[in-house]
Amino acid sequence: MGLPIRHFCFFYLFLVIFPVLELISLSKSASDYTNLVYKGCANQSLSDPTGAYSQAISALFGTLISQSSQAKFFKTSSGSGQTNVNGLFQCRGDLSNVDCYNCVSQLPILIDKLCGNPIASRIQLQGCYMLYEVAGFPQISGLEMLYKSCSEKNIGGAGFEESRDTALNALENGIGSGNGFYTTSYESVYVLGQCEGDLGTSDCNQCAQNAVQRAQVECGSSVSGQIYLDKCFISYNYYPNGAPNRSSSSSSSSSSSSSSSSSSSFSSPETASTGSGQNTGKTVAIILGGAAGVGLLVICLLCARNLMKKHDDF
Question: What are phi and psi of 165, to 5 degrees?
Fold first, then answer.
């Protein structure tokens, strides 16, 4: 004896609509935290005739990925002696464990694709970053600016800059006591900041203060900006209709970007456009939403017709 028509309709509706909603959710999230912000690749390629470095790096990546499902920050090393490789990952503080894992698991692939096989590399996505470096790689200051992005759109008048500076000052004061991650808003300006996971409170405050000062100087009256230093980053966004009640570090899609690094061992970090990824995600969500609506209408009509036919047979 088959399933009743009513039960079949609900079952079929679930099978059609649930995957569509899941795809919409995935397209929305993937268009945010997995966008490439910048890459930093050492100029010197890794000499590895025995494969010892490659083995150590692969083991390092495996450990970092496995830890990303449990923690937002993890630092470790792999190999021994001259083949020792240090590395870490960090996820944005507002990401879930699942999103953190999904973000970090993409980074080794991107490192290989964008950098090849250098002695050190760093890849920053909107939601996470990963770096590795072989033993003896020259260190840079934690306050060194790696990348900046300032919106080409500006807003005149002292009111905006006052609101932005008030929000950024609150970020400076709060980030040290917020476990190195802090978000807040003032009027129409939303700010976000994060320090590297093992940075002490004093050093975190100093890093954030330096990043804020650079944002004020470098971005001027730009409606949004991102400043990435070696040990911390901050971002701000202006929303004329009021700051949203959600965490976000994405900046305006119409932005000018530049980068800076004092270490001659690194090539200049580069960035990919984030606007296209966000627009693609929104387009996919709209298309899938429309398909879900059409599918729902067709299923309801078919079920109604079957129910009416069954009623007429009695």
Answer: -65, -35
Q: Which long-range contacts (CB under 8 A, 24 or more apart) does 180-184 make?
A: 180/93, 180/204, 181/92, 181/93, 181/94, 183/94, 183/247
Q: What are phi and psi of 262, to 5 degrees?
A: -85, -15
Place of tokens 């090849």: 116
Show the low-confidence residues of the chain (pLDDT under 50): 1-3, 5-31, 247-256, 259-265, 268, 271-300, 310-311, 313-314
At 275 the pLDDT is 37
pLDDT at res. 306: 56
pLDDT the model gives residue 207: 95
Q: Identify the pLDDT of residue 302.
A: 52
Look-up: residue for tokens 């999103």?
99
Tokens of 50: 């025995």
Closest CA to 199 of 185, 209, 213: 209
Q: Among 156, 153, 193, which Cα is nearest to 176's?
A: 193
CA separation for the pair 274, 251 (Å, rounded): 9
**Measured distance CA(174)–CA(279) in Å, rounded:** 33
The b/e string for 137-153 (b: 16+ C-beta within 10 A; e otherwise) is beebebbbbbbbbbbee
Of 234, 238, 213, 211, whose CA–CA distance to 223 is shortest? 238
Joined tokens for residue 77: 């090393």
CA dihedral 87, 100, 231, 148 (to 10 degrees): 120
Among the residues of 152-274, which ranges form H helices?
Answer: 158-175, 201-219
Predicted pLDDT of residue 137: 83
Contact 154, 220 (CB under 8 A): yes
Q: Which residue in the block uniquely carries the two structure tokens 């004061």?
A: 173
Strand, helix or coil for residue 120: strand
156: left (phi over 0), alpha (psi -120 to 50) or beta: beta
